[in-house]
């Protein structure tokens, strides 16, 4: 024989390569998950209940008209300024809560004509039937952001972490620390700035 | 004799096809894993709004309600925003029965934790959504999530 043909390539390890690739993709692919703003609707109260009287200074009124314009506390405002305005309102701490305690963690202006205590401060959001949903979500997002900023601040002060991280840890099955303690701490922070965001029935001009 | 049957120089050995099944299976597995099963085909336009204060939706306890203008191939339904539940258009009266049905289909321990996920086009009138929310309140399905795209800020 003068010249031999080339030996056949050994295909036995092909399967290994294929499985290696398969496992690589398995590990690196993330399945897209839906995300969004979680909100709880209020329960329907029996109509016979006496309406609770809330002082005007404890109410932060946000109106959104059908042209997507924003009116906050009787003044026109841009969406980008809403977050800070809501923070100032919630963090004001002008007076005491229902049981007479001062808000010793508030860092606001303590303006007597703004909210008494985060526990009493309520944000009301009213929109028109013709308001666009996109704008409505933008406003919701800013108001939730205001609460998150304040809760993060308190989490930083008390536990040297952020509220966002605590919430992420709570859902993390691999979390190393004490889950019960974590939940307790989350409740403490939530109590400091309870989310009181009410939505009035929309106007139908 | 042998020297005449010598193979021509440059002829290639046949390519082994033994590994083709492996490659095919690999592709199959990859697509099986990476594909999200979409059980509803959208009959409406659905461009979601963006937000940054978002939480994850827990799929095991959720149902979806879509809303938006009918998409291009359903022009005959008009241009007014409509609701879609599962595979078909729904009216505001159907919301409650659909939610009850979804709730009954959940595992018992999750039934009172049902989250109604609202996937709503950003150009929809917010009034439609507040009608839906009112209906949800009436049947005590109080947890809702506005599904949004995630905007990266800060």
Secondary structure: number of strands of chain B: 7
Q: Characterize the biggest β-sheet of chain B.
A: 6 strands, mixed
Provide a count of the helices of chain B: 3
Number of strand elements of chain A: 6
Strand order of the largest sheet of chain A: 4-3-2-5-6
Strand order of the largest sheet of chain B: 1-7-6-3-4-5
- Bin the helical content of chain A: 25-40%
Spans of at least 5 consecutive residues with low confidence of chain B? none
The major pleated sheet of chain A works out as: 5 strands, mixed
CATH classification, class level of the domain at 50-150 in chain B:
Alpha Beta
Percent of sequence in beta strands of chain A: 5-15%
SS-based class of chain A: alpha/beta
Question: What is the straight-line distance between the termini of chain A?
Answer: 99 Å
Q: Which whole number gives the mean pLDDT of chain B?
A: 82
Pick out the low-confidence regions of chain A: none
Number of helices of chain A: 5
In whole angstroms, the N-to-C terminal distance of chain B is 82 Å
Detailed description of the structure:
The complex is a heterodimer of chains A (205) and B (154). With 205 residues, chain A is of the alpha/beta class. Chain A has one domain (56-199). In chain A, 38% of the residues lie in helices and 13% in strands. Chain A has five helices and six strands, in the order αββββαβαααβ. Chain A has a five-stranded mixed β-sheet, covered by helices on one side. In chain A, β2 (59-64) and β3 (70-72) form a beta hairpin. In chain A, α2 packs across α3 (133-159). Chain A starts with 13 loop residues before the first helix and ends in a 6-residue tail after the last strand. The model of chain A has no long low-confidence stretch (mean pLDDT 81). Chain B has 154 residues and is an alpha/beta fold. Chain B has a domain at 50-150: Nucleotidyltransferase, domain 5 (2-Layer Sandwich), CATH 3.30.420. In chain B, 25% of the residues lie in helices and 21% in strands. Chain B is built from three helices and seven strands, in the order αβββββαβαβ. Chain B has helices at residues 20-34, 94-104, 126-138, and strands at residues 50-51, 55-56, 62-68, 82-85, 88-90, 115-120, 143-150. Chain B has a six-stranded mixed β-sheet with strand order 1-7-6-3-4-5, covered by helices on one side. In chain B, β4 (82-85) and β5 form a beta hairpin. Chain B starts with 19 loop residues before the first helix and ends with a strand. In chain B, 27% of the residues are buried. The model of chain B has no long low-confidence stretch (mean pLDDT 82). Classes of the chains: A alpha/beta (205), B alpha/beta (154).
